[in-house]
Amino acid sequence: MAIDDQIVEQIKGKNTRAFHLFVERYQKRLYFMCFDLTGNHHDAEDLSQEVFIKVFRSANQLRANQDILAWLYRIAVNTFLDKKRKRTNRILRFWLDSEDQTIDPVDNKSTSRPDNLTDASLIHNHIQRALTKLSARERAVFVLRHYQDYSLYEISQTLSIAEGTVKSLLFRAAKKLRPLLANCVGQTKEDAR
Amino acid sequence: MKSCHEFENMFLEAYYGEIQPYHKEHFDQHLANCDRCKENYSQLCTSLDEASRLSRPDLSAEYWRQYWNKLEKRLSSMPSSQRVPETRKTRWQIPDLNLRMAFVAIVMTLVLFVATVLFFRPFRLEEAPILSSESMNVHEVKDSINAQISRYLNRSKVILMSLVNLEDNEVLEFDFQQHQKLSSDLLGESKYLREQLDSQDRVMNLVDDLDVVMMQIANQNPKLDKESVELIRSSVENKELLFKINIEKMVLNKPFLKKES
User: Fold this and answer.
1) How many CB atoms lie within 10 A of CB B118?
2) Contact A10/A56 with Cβ under 8 angstroms?
3) Distance from the CA of A185 to the CA of which of B27, B72, B88, B171 falls in 20 to 30 A?
4) What local confidence, expressed as pLDDT, does residue B7 receive?
């Protein structure tokens, strides 16, 4: 029996120590995946912890030889979609709206930029803003493909949707991102000069 | 030859290296010849490359230690009922033992009631099996009618023989009232049989003849006298009722004797 299977078996018996080991094993990967989904630290932490809690509560549903990371990602995406359905991500929007007052790379209208707001943080903001233009499903698929390097087939298996749907969602996501991020590239290049 | 639109659909697969080798060759050839697709694909690659530059927070080891503490706190703050896996929850569980017993008693009573209504309905004359041809097949109905006729003929025979063979010195001591009562019963039975029989049937004619005699017996004075006995005897002999009864009984007992029309 693999180490993961042993840990999961113990989690099924509500062993907190085993659960601690399990969390330590997957917390980083899950957190960063949640960060890509939500776009900010606070929500990423909240979402990833919610996923772990769900795991603790429903460990019995995990079958032997199942890909645990894929299972975690699946719970994360479903939880993320649920949250999105219930309420808009107010914190992220508030944060981005406040950023809108200083920069507007999408519309390319803002000309005055603080000198310290360059490179990494600027790019990060641009990408995050572009990603918020995607629907929750498009973003989930894009994150799994682009940031988690899942193949189309693996995404379809993880999210239990048809491969054609994955392809379609990814195509739509890329189509939306292309003009947004192309402007971003042009802008950052301008800023660099 | 594939159109530009079809090659556009391959952009993502090409970018992520998921394109089939066969398609890849065509794809590369098309991009080499189509400036528009080449430009679009280049733009897509640039934007997706740009998306890869998304920075992630650099979190310290201390943060990850805190991460578990926060999670543990959240777990312990959860009500214990929520910590039980959802799959194990029994939504209809009744916590109190007395309530459970009451629930079981109610369910059992309901089951008994339903069973009583369905399987132990009171017997009604109109639901007598002989009449319920809907619930029987043709042979069952026929057999049942034959049994009834046989029974009717036997009882008629007993009454008639006892009267026909009555000696003169036995007339006064004879329990005629009981025979009258039996005759009345047979009249009721004949009425019932008449509904089941074909009017052209030979048995039907016999039943008609027996009815006349039974009516005669039933309507006689309970104090039997020699004249009354003689009258009944002559009716029986004139119509050869005992002979006919014997014939019909033989036919009923051995159906192969009956002519199949």
Assistant:
1) 8
2) no
3) B27
4) 86
